[in-house]
Amino acid sequence: MKRTILVFSAFLLVLPITSFAQLIDLSYNANTGDAEFDLTLGNLNVEAKADLDNFKADLSISYEISQTKIEFLFDVVQMEPVDVFMTLELSTLSNRPVEEVVEIYKVNRDKGWGYIAKELDIKLGSEDFKSLKGRSSEKYKKARNRGKSKGQKK
Questions:
Q1: pLDDT digits over 14-29, tens only?
Q2: Which of 3, 4, 41, 126 is most enclosed, with most CB atoms within 10 A?
Q3: pTM for this model (two decimals)
Q4: What SS3 class is residue 120?
Q5: For the chain, what is the domain count?
Q6: Domain residues for 130?
Q7: pLDDT tens-digit series, residues 64-84
């Protein structure tokens, strides 16, 4: 009986941690230089993975980019969903081709998106950076709402 209670107690302690870990991607660090933005991007990554086909389709439509190019970014460049989003968004904000942003990403991926944005002349705290944060938040809310409408529990 004591053993059952001990196992059950351990389960109750682990359950909230597991549930919290599912809400954010603890393995992903965007490293933007803004903790709130990093959290939003981590959450967006989780939501995008939960409904990847729709996320890819949304990116294709939103950024007027072919599904083939999106698949290339996932499969060949080995990007996370949020990395593909950031690449497309930074390409738009910086007025640079996607291919150029991808090259900067490949060389600097371990330095994070804050560094990559600076390389594209988008400074932390600038209007473009604020726009980037806002767009990521909108994308997260859209992905989250799509997941809820498909019956996912949040």
A1: 444 444 444 554 578 8
A2: 41
A3: 0.79
A4: coil
A5: 1
A6: 28-149
A7: 999 999 999 999 999 999 999
